Amino acid sequence: MNAARNILHQAPLVRKKPESYLKACYAASFDRERFVIRVRHRLSESNLVHQLVKAGKAQYGCEIISPRTFYREFFPVQPEDGVQQVLKIDEADIALDDTILHPIIVSTDEDNIEVCKGHGLHEFFTGKFIEVLPGTILADGGYFGLIHEVGKMFSKYEDSSLPEGTYKLEQVHDPALHFSIGLAPDLHANFENISPEKRQIFLTGILANALEMLGRSCLKEDEIDEEFLEKHPRARKLLESLGENIEAVLDEIKNGGAAKIASHYRTIKMTPQK
Amino acid sequence: MNTENGKFEKMQDELLASHSARISFLEHFRDHRQEGFGSYFADWGLDQKVEVKAPKEPWNADVFRTHPWDDSMEQDYGLFAPFTRDEMKSAPAWYSIHVKMVEAGTLQSDFFAYGTKAADKVGINRITKVLKENDSAEVEGCARDIMRHMGGIPKVRGRRSAEDCPTAKFYWNYRFAREISNELKSVDARTVYQALYNSSLWRKLVNTLEYQVTVLNNKRILAAFIAFIIEGRETGRIREGTQEKEISRAVALVSPLTSMRQLSMVETQEILALFNKVASS
């Protein structure tokens, strides 16, 4: 067969669920505090895109899109930042309720790659060539509304009925699922003043508790309650962002691993007070 | 800017629903060409405290309607520098700004009343004639034109300030022209500004950017796209009078390129070459 006929001008994409790739998955989680967004990219290993990232031939990035204000910019992750990205948006550029985030992985180089089994693609691709140019989109994490879907899982409020130094956590539906943290007045007053390290330890505990609650809600007679996850896409998104897949994350939570998972996930932030 | 959309839309609804309200509206624009102009809008939810600097010279009706490319461009564009991009697309924000500009003598209230017919070009003449004849369709047409030129009628036409309001059109057109010439040194800002001022091209472009192919909003991609359009007009690929159709064709040609590739990582000149390549293939 003529080699030219084997060139794929459109690179197969890694998405949230495997499609062209056998197992590869790519997703991003977000955390927003006013106009600062922390993006965490998650790409599974053993696939062509991961290999290109490792070789410095591809990079993570995120587009910020605000159609109403004619704004669309792409922000690549700097190599030294690994899979984490902090985006500082200029308030004057966007309309908050109209802003969309679009995480992707792009090629940084021109290349012609002959697909082999180690690239993790379906057998159909083996022996074919993928034409990659600077900017070719290799993985697509989807589109996310900035204020509707990002960073709204946790909120705090002052609960004057609580004794000094204590707090409580509730899973609430109002209407979307989130976790509400009631803080005793002294804790609430000092919350913003405690050091970032101490606050992180506190929030790690909160997240561990929340995961245990979520774990109980997601399991029905030891099986994943798909109906609950359908009804609460935020819960699905959070669990998906914490490990290889939801089943594995729920298994770990069930076996007492919530604190361990929470301690690895260090980007929890509060939304404004209720 | 602190505006209230609910109040604003309610007042526009009331105005559109009543002939007598429209008559009062036109009378106000005739009788308060500067002093006391803002009193009509006291309950419209506008930002009363907004501050707008004065230009070097007050604008005449021609400058307001179709801001020419002249020495005052940068300074006139600078009048709106304190506002966000979202405010520059918002009808209540533009109403707030225009009220201040009229009260400061930068504009006259009757400027907003111009129409598309040659006989309706001078606002004060149109208002006087419409009030004298009292034909309900003419009264409504004149009131609607004023409302559109003040900043838009969002409930009727959506957020279309950039199309309907000449000051918003000047702002966005000049902003694009600056950004594009900055990205693509071979294209000067004046050429871009004058090319985009064509009304059917402008309408199609801003609609495409907001509702259809948002990837064109990226500075580099937009620069290449506009250069592609300008070159197309120069070479006859885009004929006068059919710009809207030709823009649709240009969008159809280039948008598949943007779905597979993050073109903002590519030099603008190279993006333009890609667009030209796909157009000639």
List keywords for this structure.
A: 274 residues, alpha+beta, 2 domains, five-stranded antiparallel β-sheet, three-stranded mixed β-sheet, 8 helices, 16 strands, B: 281 residues, mainly alpha, 61% helix
Describe what this molecule looks like in 3D.
The complex is a heterodimer of chains A (274) and B (281). Chain A is an alpha+beta fold and 274 residues long. Chain A has helices at 48-54, 146-149, 185-190, 196-218, 226-231, 233-240, 246-254, 258-264; strands at residues 7-8, 26-33, 36-43, 58-66, 71-76, 84-88, 100-107, 111-114, 129-132, 137-140, 144-145, 154-158, 167-173, 177-183, 219-220, 223-224. Chain A folds into two domains: 3-149; 154-264, no CATH class. In chain A, strands 4, 5, 7, 10 and 11 form a five-stranded antiparallel β-sheet that branches. The mean pLDDT of chain A is 84. Chain B is mostly helical. Chain B has two domains: 5-164, no CATH class; 186-280. Chain B is elongated, with a radius of gyration of 20 Å. The longest helix of chain B is centred in the middle third of the chain and has 18 residues, at 166-183. Chain B contains 15 helices and no strands. At the A-B interface, strand 4 and strand 5 of A face helix 12 of B.
